[in-house]
Amino acid sequence: MLKTINNFDLKNKRVLIRVDFNVPISNGIVNDDFRIRAALPTINHCLESGASVVLMSHLGRPKGQVVPDLSLIPVGEKLAELIELPIKFSDNCVSEDARDVSLGLRHGEIHLLENLRFHEEETDNDLRFSELLSKHGEIFINDAFGTAHRPHASNVGVSKYFLHKGIGFLFEKELQYLSSVIKRPKRPMALVLGGAKIETKLKLINKFIDEADIIIIGGGMAFTFLKAKGINIGGSLLDESMLSTASEIIEKSRKVNNRLHLPIDVIASKSLDDINSIKEFRIDSIPKTMSGFDIGSATIEKYSKLLMSSKTIVWNGPMGVFEKTEYENGTLKIAEILTEANEEGSTVIVGGGDTAAAVKSYNLIDKMSHVSTGGGASLELLSGNRLPSVEALGG
Ligand code: 3PG
Ligand code: MG
Questions:
Q1: pTM
Q2: What is the whole-number distance in angstroms between the Cα of residue 60 and the centre of ligand 1?
Q3: What average pLDDT score do residues 44-71 get?
């Protein structure tokens, strides 16, 4: 049985919490604190119950190397500011020193561990590494919903070493909301997918193509589909290894009433920073020397019509390189259209670190039905797949 944090007596206990602090950072500053804020209820509950807290997270994909730009130090600074408490920090999540800091914690104190993915054992779900992590706490709480779909040492392996283990408030809230929607979605149901992590998402589209009525594609991943259709995409982002899967999906879509919708125009330029060359092109006339970085105006209009006729909308992944104002229009417009759809009674679920960050920067979080801290995780759940981290906790 899956337990939640409410099942435990936390007084004078050391609670090891897996959080998802994989947040956008530039020049050592956290650009968006949505995921950090989302973890506060669980952290505060532990502190108020008389426990001490050890926090562990990944940041980015350093692939087992120590990458200074992916240090969690800026996250610790942000957390200290939000929670108004000092944070102890260890620069190696499994060193003896780090373990000693945890053992010496007094109730009400917080210890943040350095990026788990500085060790390749994390993504390998290595049991020896899991065991070392487990030394930090007496109770294990997983509140990293955003990472729930990854079978890693800090959320799967580590569970083996705890008798007392469960999920935190954020994880619980996400599970409850997303499972209730998927049981009886109002139709038509639309899925809007963007971003660049095409590999994770393609497998899910393959599942969703039977479930969703409309699948709308934007962002970097759109170009692999366009290329698979034989369209010249110039220098746009392409994942060659995914071309055949993309073709299969296009073929499958033909058989089920053309559910898959791709951009019909793009905003392109010679390179991301060459803003003087920015121009809109029809999808069949992208010059060889140009790369697409956002969806174009005709695409936005087409997608708007499709979305305004949908009753359940799941959005995951930005429509373009929204971090740069020149390419944020597609993402901003989709966010505005979804606000309108929500006002008219549709259920709108937004998921993913980047997408949530975009929606937050437009001050539209409260205008959606649910903004999930998980991108891949929420899609996995909505597509009916099991989450390995939930199974590891007996759920
Ligand atoms: C996310 O941002 O989707 C989660 O933090 C998981 O990150 P990952 O895709 O690098 O595993
Ligand atoms: Mg992400």
A1: 0.90
A2: 7
A3: 98
